[in-house]
C-alpha cells in the first residue's frame, strides 16, 4: 500500500512538472485525474500514508491563524537601479574600482541578464530534498511564513531528487496577464473588488491565511537564484540556474549569459521590445555578475549587492484626467461603465478609453468625472482605471458619485437591477445595443471572420433596418452591399462547427468552451437534445454553466436562429477525425507570430482537428513551430533546440499527412 502511494506521488510529480513547468505533458487530463483520484482514495483509507509533499495537498489544507515571522538564513537583498547605458557603465566602473582597491586590477566580468518579473519575491527552503518552508522577502532579514499557500502552486516542486542537505531557492511568484484578467472579470461579475495589477493579486493571494483560496487562484513561479546552501558547490550564477533547471525548477528560457556591457545593453533593449508580448509583467532586466568569487569580493553596499543591478523600464501606469463616464450595453444587456480620459501615453500606447468593470467596482474605486486618476495598461489587457490619484480625493467640489442610467443609453428602455447581479441591465432582448454587440461578435475574426464587416458596417446595416439577427447577414444581396462583402459573408459558411457555436453568442460559451462542446457532441442536434448532466460532462464545464447553456439552447429564439443559420448553409457538424486522431495525432505544436492568411484561432482549429495540440512554449518534445511575421522569442528557442520551423504553407502540408 505504501509502495503504491509513493509510486503515485512520484508519477504525479513527474507529470505535474511536465505540464506546469515544461508545458510538455505526456498524458491527458483524464489520465492525470485518475492517478490523483487513486492517491486520494488511498490516503483517505490510510491517512498515515498522506505526506506534506503529496500532490493531494495542492488543494490547500486548513487555514492558519497568523503568518509567523521567519528569519532568512541569508538576507534577501534589494537592487540598485540603472535607467540608461551611462548608468550601467558607471555601475561597471564602480565594480572595477572596488576590486582594484582589493588588488585586482582591470577586472573583466561576464553577466547574466534575467527578466525582472513584477511579482512577489519568495524563498523556498528545501531540507534533504523536501520543501520545509516558504517565506516572503519581508524587510530582507525577516519575512513571513507562507508555506501553506506556496504548497498549492503547481510549479513549486514539493520534493527535489538529488538535492543537497539544504538548499534555499529564490524566485518570484507571479500571475500571468491572461489569468489576471480572467480573475478580475470573475471577481467583478461576482461583485467583489478587483485587483489593481497582477503583482497585487499574487501578493494578496500568498499573504492571506486560507490555502484553499490560494489553490483556486492561478499562481506560478520563475526562479532566479540560490541563497543558503549546504553540500552544493557553485562557481557561477549561470551554473546555479542550470542546477535549478535540471532539478525541476522553472527558469525562464530567455535568461542569457553575456560577455560585454554592449551586449547587456542590447539585451535590455531586446527585453523592452518584447515586453508587450509577454504573458507576465516585467518592469526591467536584472543584470548580475556571473562569477561567484567576484560576487563575494564585491560584497554589499548598504542593502544592495554591488554585483547586481536592475535596468528599469518605464512604468505601466500614468495619471490623467477622467473627463466622463459612459455606459455601454453588453451582449446580454449588462451595462458596463467606461472611462473617457484625457489622452495619456502608457506603456508605449496612447490611452483614451479604459474599463471600470462594473458599477460596484466603480463605486468601490470612487472615481468621478473631473478627477485625476491612475490608469494602468499591462500587455494586451484592456487599460483600466485603478483609482483616483491621491490628491483627487482631497479636492473639494468633486462631481457627484456616478450611477448607472435609469434608462438604457441605446433604446431608452427602463433599466433593471436583478437580485444578486452586479450589473444593471437593459431588459429589452431586441435592444439595438446588445444586438450590435452580438452581431459584431458573430462577424469578428475569432468567430465567423467576415472580412470587411466591422463595427461601423454592422451599425449601418442596423440603421438601414437590414439586419436584426446574425441569420439576416445571409439574406443580403449585392444590391445592398458591395460584391466583395457579399462574397465574404458567403465564404463564412465554410467555418467549422466550433466557430459557429461560439459565434451565435451564448452566455458562458467562449471559443474554448465552444470547441470543447463541438468535440464532445460532434453536431448541433445531440447538443440540443442533451441534458444538463450530459453537458456538464464536457471538459471545463461545471453544473452551473451547463444549466445556463441548456437553458439558452432551449430558448425558442436561439432555436430559431440556429434553424435559420443551418438553412443558410452554415456547418453544424464536426468534420474530420475525432480528437486525438489524424495526421498530427499526439504532436505538440507551437504558434508564434502572425500568419499571412490563418488567424491564431483558425490555425489552432486545424491542428486540433488533425489530432495535434497547441502549446504555449517550445521544448525538445515540440513536433514543430509554426512561425509567421514578428515571431518573437519562441522562434529563437526553436532554432536553439533544433526544433523544426514551418511557415503557413508548411503547416498546411503537415495537416494533409
Task: Describe the protein in words.
35% of the residues lie in helices and 20% in strands. It is α+β, with helices and mostly antiparallel strands and 657 residues long. The chain has five domains: 2-59, Helix hairpin bin (Helix Hairpins, Orthogonal Bundle), CATH 1.10.287.610; 80-312, D-amino Acid Aminotransferase, Chain A, domain 1 (2-Layer Sandwich), CATH 3.30.470.30; 317-388, Beta Barrel (OB fold (Dihydrolipoamide Acetyltransferase, E2P)), CATH 2.40.50.140; 432-567, DNA polymerase, domain 1 (Orthogonal Bundle); 588-656, BRCT domain (Rossmann fold). A five-stranded mixed sheet has the order 2-13-10-3-9. Strand 17 and strand 18 (384-388) form a beta hairpin. Helix 12 (432-443) packs across helix 13. The chain starts with a helix and ends with a helix.
Mind sketching the topology for me?
Layout: H1 2-20, H2 29-45, E1 69-71, E2 80-82, H3 85-101, E3 111-117, E4 120-127, E5 130-136, E6 142-144, H4 147-150, E7 166-175, H5 177-189, H6 198-206, H7 211-215, E8 219-230, H8 237-246, E9 256-258, H9 261-274, E10 282-289, H10 292-298, E11 300-301, E12 304-305, E13 308-312, E14 317-329, E15 335-346, E16 349-355, H11 359-365, E17 372-376, E18 384-388, H12 432-443, H13 455-463, H14 483-491, H15 497-503, H16 511-521, H17 524-529, H18 532-536, H19 543-553, H20 556-567, E19 588-592, H21 600-609, E20 613-615, E21 624-627, H22 633-641, E22 645-646, H23 648-656
Parallel strand pairs: 2-13, 19-20, 19-21, 21-22
Antiparallel strand pairs: 1-6, 3-9, 3-10, 4-5, 4-7, 7-8, 10-13, 11-12, 14-15, 14-17, 15-16, 17-18
Helix pairs in contact: 1-2, 12-13, 15-16
